Amino acid sequence: METRRRARERMRLEHGRMLETEDRLSNLPQHLVEEIISRLPSRSIAWMSTLYKKWAYLLESFPGLFFDEEEFEYKSDRQNDVRLHQFVSKYMSRQTPILIQEIRIGTTPFRRTKFNHQVGLCMKLVDLSRIRVLDLKFRLNQLLTGCHCYAIPGAVFSQGAQLTILELEGCRLENIDAVNVPLLKTVSMTCVHISDETLFKLVAMSCNLESLELQHCYELRSFRIASSSLERLGVSNCRHMETFYLDCPHLWYLKCKGREVHEVGRDQEISYFCGLLPVC
Fold this sequence. Notes:
The chain has 280 residues and is an alpha/beta fold. The protein has one domain (63-273): Leucine-rich repeat, LRR (right-handed beta-alpha superhelix) (Alpha-Beta Horseshoe). The protein contains eight helices and 13 strands. The protein has helices at residues 4-22, 30-37, 42-49, 57-61, 77-94, 112-125, 155-158, 196-204; strands at 64-68, 102-107, 133-138, 150-151, 165-169, 171-172, 186-190, 211-215, 222-226, 232-236, 243-247, 253-257, 269-273. The protein has an eight-stranded parallel β-sheet, with helices on one face. The chain has a three-stranded parallel β-sheet with strand order 9-11-13. Strand 7 (186-190), helix 8 (196-204) and strand 8 (211-215) form a beta-alpha-beta unit. Helix 5 packs parallel to helix 6 (112-125). The protein is elongated, with a radius of gyration of 24 Å. The protein starts with a helix and ends in a 7-residue tail after the last strand. Pfam families: F-box (PF00646), LRR_At1g61320_AtMIF1 (PF23622). Residues 22-70 form the F-box domain.
């Protein structure tokens, strides 16, 4: 008659063999594993790393922090805050902050102001000089004043030597003292509080910027862009814009619309020098 100890051992061995036969992820080439993992939120990666010993490396080796606040929807706001804080703290303690190269974080509209602290915690722990992708989306159910929005640290621009993609929503950019983003190629801003001077400085000092998209940036009034590298520009629903000046000799794509789609310059003063832009 089989003892309980032997029965448990037999079940453990059978479970191990089952995992071996079902574990197709470990048999894939490393670049395919990285591609699959890159499409998962950090919480799923953390969960997978605890399932099987061979997958333990996933969390430590993957250089990204991806999560959306909607993943932490529980019965009460306090539970949300506690669980989110626990996740961020544990994730950052297991992950080597210096290895993180991508940050993609999204918030829900109704609790975004409570979320600022958690985002600030992440930004303080990572090495900003190694960040290549920064995607922060503070989703809005109404347009907030600048003082209630999360302020992007100036160090993102002064220390962003590896930054290539910057996507922001529902936050603010204050005066930038120094800009060191030689690899920045793509910038997208939606409902971002940014002044004319700050935008001009950011674009002018991003020597390899190729694509710029702005939506609902209501503080822009005197729109001035000067860039020798910019190729694509989209401006949508920046309703307070009064003047529009471009000095972009390599620009080949320009899209500009207000609350209703209209031809560029219908309600605005336009002045541009774009060497590659077709003249209709």
